Amino acid sequence: QAQLVESGGGSVQAGGSLRLSCAVSEYIFKTYYMGWFRQAPGEEREGIAAIRRDGTTDYADSVKGRFTTSRDNAANTLYLQMASLRPEDTAMYYCAASVAPRNSYMTPLQVLALMLSRGAEFGSWGQGTQVTVSS
Questions:
Q1: Residue 8's closest CA among 18, 16, 117, 74?
Q2: For 103-120, what is each residue's pLDDT tens digit?
Q3: By the 8 A CB rule, do 99 and 30 touch?
């Protein structure tokens, strides 16, 4: 069964940085797309970053220019480098991985969200790591 385990969350002052990691144990074909989502209490889940196996990335406007996602395919690890953190970044952060569709004109974030919506045969979630940013 697929396993995705996030680490690196914690508490940080506004303006600070954190790096999240996600260790992935999954069939290679189910990790063509990987990325990050977050959810604050009472809020909708938000897709914030996605990366294709070839390194193509996609970011939500809310984090563009501040967050960078990367992947080490040999180590089966996904990263999210977060800089210039703000209190509104406080949320539970989840990593995710999915298969690729045959053809798509969608952005990597859109593809990842769509594949995850189709269930466990298409995409997998981690259990999350908490990030808290104080003023």
A1: 18
A2: 778 999 999 999 999 999
A3: yes
